[in-house]
Design a protein that fits this description.
Metallo-beta-lactamase, Chain A; alpha/beta; binds zinc ion; 359 residues; single chain; globular; seven-stranded mixed β-sheet; Arc Repressor Mutant, subunit A; five-stranded mixed β-sheet
Length: 359
């Protein structure tokens, strides 16, 4: 079944349908629109907390994308549970991507809520607060290293992104460091650092009620992109795999994801994601020529061209430029894990793309 039509058990409807759906007692899942985005919508979760002045206040996990349409849908959903923007005391933002972070900043200007974000998002946030050209140059550099030379040029020359005003990339009020318990009303949420999707990604676990607010770290119907962030790194997948193991070592919890329906078992999805990456690592290794053959080696883009993409097993050439970029960077991340494991070797130099061989 396609992600868009997947039915969520809390609403008995396609998961992106607007509303405030009862994900758990005292927890409402509120899907907010992401127009022109394959992800369709982003779930924010409103957690009720006792409040001396108002009786009940709210902590939100994620804020959504700061666009007028999303703000309207959120306002309507909150009013259906007898609440409004003034009731939001705090935003726990799983990561710095615009569909999670920017509306938290926009609403903070209205209601003075506290915005909380992982400390390791600071370098990427500093870059997007600075110049868009610098961000594009960095992404272009990573794509060029992955051998996606034409896409790298497209990226560097792309127009500024007018959809997200630059002044929405304000700093949070509070940085999360390491793993730490947070008091949210009567609950304790364990903030668990899970780098991979981005370096500063956090999940929030309510062990007493068996809930995992998973952000984009563990998604129910798709595999999250890895390391798509301005502060690009060579090894985001090693971090991601370690973060999956970290969540697998926690109790099995109900998965409350940022994109897609709620799902019964965090362990079930973590195992599926680990198996997916095992398969991709194996396919990437098989695509490489042995170093002993003395050939020219392959770039990450060359290897990506040998692999099937999406559930429909499409070729790289049939993907649009944005998804070709994601595929090239993801393949580079797989190849770098093979290098770190001693199964592949890489050579870089003179600004040429990294070239890989089977060890
Ligand atoms: Zn997201």
């Amino acid at each position: 079944m396609s992600t868009a039509k997947a039915i969520s058990p809390d609403s008995d409807r396609p998961w992106g349908d607007p509303g405030a759906w009862p994900a758990a007692p005292g927890v409402h899942r509120i899907p907010l629109p992401l127009p022109n985005d394959g992800l369709l919508a982003v779930n924010v979760y409103a957690i009720e907390t006792p409040d001396a002045d108002r009786g009940t206040a709210l902590t939100l996990v994620d804020g959504g994308w700061a666009i007028a349409e999303a703000q309207e849908v959120l306002e309507k959903a909150l009013s259906s549970i007898g609440a409004g923007f003034g009731d939001i005391r705090r935003f726990l933002v799983t990561h710095v991507h615009r569909d999670h972070y920017t509306q938290a900043v926009a609403l903070r200007r209205l209601n003075g809520a506290e915005v909380v974000l992982g400390r390791r998002e600071e370098p990427s946030l500093a870059l997007v607060r600075g110049s868009e050209q610098e961000v594009r140059t960095r992404m272009g550099g990573a794509l060029a290293d992955a051998g996606a030379v034409e896409i790298a040029e497209l990226w560097k020359r792309a127009p500024d992104d007018a959809s997200t005003p630059n002044d929405l990339w304000e700093l949070p009020d509070t940085w999360l460091e390491g793993d730490q318990p947070l008091t949210v009303g009567a609950r304790t949420l364990d903030a668990v650092h899970t780098p991979g999707h981005t370096q500063g990604h956090y999940v929030f676990a309510d062990r007493a009620d068996g809930l995992l607010f998973a952000g984009d770290h563990v998604l129910p119907t798709i595999t999250p992109s890895i390391g798509f962030e301005p502060d690009t790194r060579l090894q985001p997948l090693a971090d991601f795999l370690a973060s999956l193991a970290k969540v697998r070592a926690m109790p099995d919890l109900s998965l409350l994801p940022a994109h897609g329906p709620v799902h019964g078992s965090s362990h079930g999805r973590v195992e599926a994601l680990l198996a997916h990456h095992d398969t991709r690592l194996e396919l990437s290794l098989r695509a490489l020529e042995p170093q002993a053959d003395g050939g020219a080696g392959m770039s990450a883009y060359d290897v990506a061209g040998e692999l099937p993409w999406t559930r429909r097993e499409r070729t790289l050439a049939s993907l649009d430029p944005f998804n070709t970029a994601l595929a090239s960077l993801e393949t580079r991340a797989h190849l770098e894990v093979l290098v770190a494991r001693g199964q592949a070797v890489v050579r870089r130099g003179d600004g040429a793309p990294g070239r890989y061989w089977r060890a």
